[in-house]
Input
Amino acid sequence: MTASDTPTACIMLADGTVFYGRGFGATGLKVAELCFNTAMTGYQEIMTDPSYARQAITFTFPHIGNTGVNDEDNETAHPVAEAMVVKWDPTEPSNWRSQSRLSDWLARGGRIGVGGIDTRRLTRMIRLQGAPHVAIAHSPDGIFDLWALVEKARAFPGLEGRDLARGVTCAQAFKWDRMRWAWPDGYPRRTGPGKRIVAVDYGAKRNILRCLSGAGCEVTVVPATATVADILAHDPQGLFLSNGPGDPAATGEYAVPVIRDILNRTDLPVFGICLGHQMLALALGGRTLKMNHGHHGANHPVREHSTGKVEITSMNHGFAVDTDSLPEGVAETHVSLFDGSNCGIALTGRPVFSVQHHPEASPGPKDSFHLFERFAASIP
Output
């Protein structure tokens, strides 16, 4: 083995399985739950999605890094996912919008990348055994304390019972007026009056806020811990519940009573996405459960029951709403055609609905944009 062949990174699973590869980005150690994502594009958006807090991502598509990164495509200010695992080392970027190399961007954000991994084998392991706890190390000298790494992986507490929304939410309320990207000027600002909505930030992606603004909404974002009084102080005409990381039941300890109180005290239209969907289900009397390996990708077919329409959607969740737990008056509206899991609910007779998938992420590419218009149209 030559010096250039020496591994500079390793992935240690809690069961003792080791994968060696070549490190890029930041050096050091990350401990996380490992999932896989099947999307062919959007690695920058994926790495900056707050829903990936305390997770590392195996990308099944091999061409990661080839379009570089830029300042416009972040879903939040900095990378949130702990690490990325890829088959091929990132190449030099070749895209007119690129402003930086992926490796340099990861290093600035303190995130580790590992290349040269058999991602097919790793993905099969995750599918069969569930999302493992891992310790991922990048050391240029190629020296690793394997016993220490396996202990780190085994000590990771996992995501069940973890409220991670507090760690990624905004510190204080703010206004949002940017809309979806448009040629040639990027993200235009919404002007003039709009329908006043409050968006509860459990880890909101920027493009969700852009889509709400583009649908004609005047958006005020509030922290995940906002009280009923905090929300109603903005005199909203609608309430949006954002995506986010962690166990919905744990975040629900403080978020669900707020949602339930607003539903009982007002007739506000409500729309939720991902964790917001799960929060709404809990507030309406349903339950959530941990999935084996979750849904992470941009090719997930979802059927809407009322129309029979199938949409190609983007997904990113490790917990799901238990359809069998939904009480009378709460209808399932969407279902995954991959595994039959719940992907949407609605409160009968009221403009209160949510979906598990991410309509803002542009798979399809516009299959689910109508949900934002539906929400805006429900606001009188």
